[in-house]
Each structure stands twice: as C-alpha cells, then as structure tokens.
Write a structure and sequence with these properties.
This protein is of the alpha/beta class. Helices cover 27% and strands 32% of the residues. The chain has eleven helices and 19 strands. The chain has helices spanning 42-47, 58-61, 64-71, 86-95, 183-188, 195-205, 231-238, 257-267, 284-289, 295-304, 323-335, and strands at residues 5-9, 19-23, 28-32, 48-52, 78-82, 110-116, 122-129, 136-143, 148-151, 155-163, 167-175, 178-181, 191-192, 213-220, 223-230, 239-242, 246-250, 272-276, 310-313. Strands 1-2-3-4-5-6-7-8 form an eight-stranded mixed sheet. Strands 9-10-11-17-18-19 form a six-stranded mixed sheet. β2 and β3 form a beta hairpin. α10 runs parallel beside α11 (323-335). The protein is globular. The two termini are 36 Å apart. Bound molecules: zinc ion (ZN).
C-alpha cells in the first residue's frame, strides 16, 4: 500500500532547513522547520495546516513571513508548534506589521501557536486572529502525553525536548497502521464490502476487542442483507495489518548522553530519518562548541535508532566543495564501516 506521506526537503542540504510533507488524498501538508521557503509554490504553502519548528534560530524560522503572507485570507487555520519562548516569538513577528486594513478581509485567519514546556509535560497555547489585528489571546494549556502533539485517525506527531544550547524540539511523524482486507477471504465469508468495512477498519486501528459487534453486509443470493459479526472473526480471517510509515526529523542538537537517549527513543525504527550533519568529524570540537552534530555523529545516531534510511542535511557552507565527504562520513557511521 502506498504511504500517505510524501516528504521533500524544500532546499538543498547547504540552504535553510524545511521539510514539506504532502499528505496523499488529503490536499493538506505539514511543514517541519520554517527556514527560507521561497522555493515552495504558493499552492503548496496553502496546503500547510501544521508547522513544527525545532527552534527559532533565524535559519529555521525566517520563512514565517512568507507563510503568513500567502495564508492571509485563507479559511483554514494555521497551527504552529515550537519550544519554550515560541508564543512570544510568533507574537513579535505578527506585531511587527501594521494591520489596520486586515479586518477588510472577508475571511478570518486564525494562527495558533503552541509552545512545549522545557520538561515536555504540557503545551501553552495562544491564538492570534487577523480580525483582531493578531492580538494575542492565551488559551488553556494542553497536557502532553509522551510528547504527542497531533493525534488524528491517519497520523500522529510526537516531539522530544532536546538541547541545542537552547531548548529545541525533535519530531516523529507516524502514519496509522494500514488495515488491508483480502477480497477473496471476504467473499468466502459471504460478506460484501461497504461502509461497515470502513468502520471495522477504524475499530481495528483503535485496537477494539475481538467481541466488538459489527453490522456487516452479507450476500444472500442476489440480495445483500445485514448480519451481525464479531470484529474478531473479521480480524482473524480476512484482514492483514501493516505498520504505517514513520518519518523523523532532528535538527540542531548537541551530542551528549541526554540528547542521545531522547533522540533514539523518538526516532526508534523510523523508515526515514532527516538529521542535521552540520560539521565534518575533523571539526568535532567546533560542532560541540556550537551544539551541533558532525556527520559521523548523525550517522551513529541513525544506526543506534535502527532507522532504515538516513537523509543527512543542514551542512555548513564551508564544505560546499566537499559535500560528498559529509555524506560518506554519515553513511559510513550509519552502516558501521570505516569511511
Ligand atoms: Zn540553531
């Protein structure tokens, strides 16, 4: 089954970080980090519903203005997540413009900023409405369980609070389990597909017990009738469950035990890991001073997290003429071989 996530780095590995994840069938997209997004078409930007910002160093947040510029006048709300201090940063960005004419827009754009606390236990929230000239309105904070920021039937986004000299978030995007139904086995049971099957799939994803009753469609000669069926019967005879895709995004983190433990837990078993590899291994002292990873460290984190594929990015421009060295350092550490 085709995964619903279509991830793509907006820029090359030497330019600003931003990962655009299109959601198949949803006409919607998620953004991880908000560096320069000039390369994203307005059509794609308009699809963005949620933005997950690791931290507000300029190269990760400068795209906020373009996002806002294009989304003004859009009906769909925009929700952004970030680390400690994030609501204030969003508020200041919004306050830096003159909004006296914005109430003339027929549609109100609601921007919600969510800020994950330093211990990851809760998220403070504030909304900014264009109709109120983006005045800040504080909302009730939300409790966070295991870093869960977004919980939808088709996907979940979790975060881990990491250290980059300042609090910085790492993210994992998890697709819900795929429930595949074998048409021939369904026919053997005398059952006919229909809306009831969609409800059954939902119940399976929600891990409902085997004795959950289903009102299924059943073929009776040329007619189809309703028949009561237990979820367990369907589960055991006509269904195969396949884990959904997992994408992890880690950028701008210091290499130390505490970060490593949190990252490997967040990333564990990811199909695809986007991870910063800012410095070469020979510049490890500078990487440490600047709370960044080397390519080798990025590769070993991917290995320890049992990621399936690593995409190193966010390279320092100083290595512009030796990009291959960064990539092979990361790959070698990931594969556990000497470069
Ligand atoms: Zn940074």
């Amino acid at each position: 089954m085709r995964p619903i996530f279509q991830p793509r780095l907006v820029n090359g590995p030497f330019a600003d970080p931003a990962l655009f994840v299109d959601l198949l069938f949803e006409r919607r997209a998620l953004l991880f980090d908000l560096g320069d997004i000039a390369a994203l078409s307005p059509r794609k930007i308009l699809r963005t519903s949620h933005v997950f910002v690791t931290h507000t160093h300029m190269d990760h947040f400068v795209g906020f203005d373009r996002l806002l510029r294009i989304c003004l006048g859009r009906a769909r709300p925009l929700t952004l997540f970030g680390p400690v201090g994030f609501i204030e940063h969003v508020g200041h960005r919004l306050a830096s413009y003159t909004w006296n004419l914005v109430e003339n827009y027929s549609i109100d754009l609601v921007v919600t900023a969510c800020e994950v606390s330093a211990d990851g236990s809760h998220a403070s929230r504030a909304t900014f409405n264009s109709r109120e000239r983006f005045q800040r309105r504080d909302q009730d904070p939300a409790e966070l369980h295991d870093g869960l920021l977004l919980d939808e039937p088709a996907l979940q986004v979790r975060c881990a609070v990491l250290d980059h000299g300042v609090p910085c978030l790492g993210f994992a995007l998890q697709e819900a389990m795929h429930v595949n139904v074998w048409p021939n086995r369904l026919a053997e049971l005398g059952l006919v597909p229909g809306a009831w099957l969609r409800d059954a799939k939902r119940a399976i994803i929600a891990n409902a017990p085997d004795d959950t009753p289903l009102t299924a469609r059943w073929r009776d000669g040329d007619e189809s009738r309703e028949r009561l069926l237990s979820l367990g019967t369907l589960r055991q005879s006509a269904v195969q469950c396949v884990p959904g895709q997992k994408i992890a995004y880690v950028s701008d983190v210091a290499y130390h035990t505490d970060n490593l433990q949190r990252i490997t837990r967040l990333v564990a078993g990811a199909d695809l890991l986007f991870i910063e590899a800012t410095f070469r291994g020979c510049d490890v002292d500078e990487a440490q001073r600047k709370h960044h990873l080397t390519a080798r460290q990025a590769g070993s984190i991917a290995r320890d997290s049992a990621a399936r594929v690593i995409v190193p990015f966010h390279f320092s421009p100083r290595y512009m003429d030796c990009e291959g060295a960064l990539v092979s350092e990361a790959r070698a550490a990931f594969l556990g071989v000497t470069p």
